[in-house]
Specification:
The complex is a heterodimer of chains A (269) and B (271). With 269 residues, chain A is mainly alpha-helical. Chain A is 72% helix and 1% strand.
């Protein structure tokens, strides 16, 4: 079995596991509609009662597109494997992987992405439908080049979020009850990544602080690439920053893994 | 008859207080978990405050409701979220496990109401504190900034509406959980209910008229967090007040009946 083969099988197993609980899957997709409904009605009523055409620097169309796309992108980039990694470390499931010729992260991520495949495809289909409903924004039509930049920014956002949560999951080497960190961090990172509202709502000071953190490059940046709020060289600049963060996070993950596995005591499993 | 009812109420109140005490003691045994729970709830509180921030930063009045009035709505939703996740979720989330592991068979043999012990046995103190304190601060801040009195009338109304909303929450969120006797995996259904409940993050006035109607009279989700703020801001109409008082009665009766039906169809895990 070649390298691609074994991770491919892990991917396939993840996909099959999701398909075992089809009703659960479709209900979880249905759940994702509620945040979109809330956002749509909230902003529609706000713009209807505002004397200004722009709120937080967004026109009505830009805002609706932003909040709908941000809800979808939050789904696409969301992690979830951190619970499995923490459980593997705490309960000894890691033993079984360590003795096999597998890279633990690649194995976990392959299985996780397999389970996420259908959700991602559905989200991308809805994004494509949204682009058809809104064929232009701020007087600009979407070109293939814009879609390609968006795809690159989104892919980087996904990898960044995976790496952040991978680093976080390895806290389980030191803390046995790590659920609170995951849950709390998940909420805060979703807010700071612009997954609920555009980060302009936080005000100037917080925005300046967010410039030095990776979060806004996960959801806010890709959405703004698609809505033409980030254009020209700013797109390239943003993608370069994403790549920088990815390199830094990958390095950090490697360091934490090395220190963590040295500390790891194989009990249970 | 009256004496018997009083005796039953006394018995169950005493038992419930024991459950609560027992759960608080258990939480205190794992202090780190307790503080972690408070930390997580604080992060959720921040996400609710973000909605208030949006209203205040934009300064827009929606249908005559200023950002201060919006804060009262968000505060009430925060208090009710605290009650829901502290008193009910810890129980509803365990129902599947009771059925799957056969624990329900043991609970059936207890000399108390099965519905009572299954749906009210557990309580989470840690999740209650930040939400109730945060919610009360938001409500008080909103009312003070609106220059409205906070007297006995408002405090009594708050207590009454919290009691009514608690009963509505119990009925509304237990309803889908009765499927636990038929469905193996309840996680996604509860996740959907939890997301649906987030619709109260914003006042119901932002939604379309038909959604408001459905959310008050058909599936009284909006009645949980919206009627007290509307009442205290003198915007509640008689129909809404009637819904606030009647919904708990209808829901609790429906739940009682459906619970009986669900239990009749229950086959023990070992049978």
């Amino acid at each position: 079995m070649n390298i691609l083969g074994k991770y491919g099988y892990a991917f396939l197993l993840g996909f099959k596991r999701t398909m075992e609980y089809r009703l659960s899957f479709f209900l979880s997709i249905l759940s994702c509609l509620f945040p979109m409904v809330i956002q749509y009605y909230l902003w529609t009523s706000m713009y209807a009662h505002s004397t200004d055409l722009m709120i937080f620097g967004y026109s009505y169309r830009q805002m609706i597109l932003y909040v709908l796309l941000a809800s979808l992108l939050t789904l696409v980039v969301s992690a979830g494997f951190e619970w499995e990694i923490a459980s593997d470390i705490k309960e000894g499931g890691l033993n079984a992987v360590l003795v096999r010729p597998l890279h633990y992260f690649l194995y976990r991520i392959s299985s996780f992405l397999g389970g996420k495949l259908l959700q991602v495809l559905l989200s991308l289909a809805v994004i494509a439908a949204l682009l058809m409903v809104y064929p232009s924004i701020a007087g600009q039509m979407w070109q293939l080049r814009d879609i390609a930049w968006f795809a690159a920014a989104l892919l980087n956002g996904v990898v960044m979020n995976m790496l952040i949560f991978y680093c976080l999951s390895m806290l389980a080497f030191w803390i046995s009850e790590v659920w609170g960190v995951f849950a709390g961090f998940g909420v805060v990172s979703s807010l700071f990544s612009g997954g609920v509202f555009p980060i302009e709502v936080f005000g100037v000071v917080v925005n300046r602080l967010l410039d030095y953190l990776p979060f806004k490059y996960i959801v806010y940046f890709p959405v703004n690439v698609l809505t033409f709020r980030v254009t020209g060289t700013a797109v390239l600049e943003g993608i370069a920053i994403q790549l920088g963060w990815m390199a830094l996070l990958a390095l950090l993950a490697q360091v934490i893994w090395r220190i963590g596995t040295k500390k790891y005591v194989s009990i249970g499993g | 008859m009256v004496k018997r009812v009083a005796r039953t109420v006394r018995k169950y109140s005493k038992l419930y207080l024991l459950f609560v005490k027992n759960c608080i003691l258990a939480e205190m045994e794992y202090r780190a978990n307790f503080w972690m729970g408070i930390g997580v709830e604080c992060s959720w509180l921040i996400s609710k405050l973000l909605y208030a921030l949006v209203f205040f930063q934009s300064g827009i009045d929606i249908y005559g409701f200023s950002p201060d009035a919006m804060l009262v709505f968000i505060g009430m939703h925060t208090v009710m979220t605290g009650i829901l996740i502290s008193f009910f979720w810890p129980n509803f989330g365990r129902m599947t496990e009771y059925v799957r592991t056969g624990t329900l068979d043991v609970l059936i043999t207890k000399p108390v109401s099965l519905q009572f012990i299954v749906t009210l046995r557990h309580f989470s103190f840690g999740t209650l504190i930040p939400n109730v304190i945060g919610g009360l601060v938001m409500i008080a801040t909103g009312l003070i900034r609106l220059r409205l009195d906070i007297g006995w009338r408002e405090i009594s109304a708050f207590a009454i509406f919290v009691a009514l909303s608690t009963a509505i929450s119990y009925g509304l969120f237990l309803l889908p959980n009765l499927l636990t006797f038929k469905v193996v995996e309840m996680g996604p259904i509860n996740m959907m209910m939890s997301q649906m409940q987030e619709m109260n993050n914003v006042p119901m006035i932002v939604y379309s008229k038909w959604l408001q109607f459905a959310g008050i009279y058909l599936f009284p989700l909006f009645a949980i967090s919206n009627i007290f703020p509307l009442f205290v801001l003198q915007q509640a109409d008689p129909g809404m007040l009637a819904a606030a008082f009647l919904s708990p009665v209808v829901l609790l009766l429906a739940i009682r009946w459906l619970w009986g039906r669900a239990i009749q169809s229950y086959a023990s895990a070992s049978s």
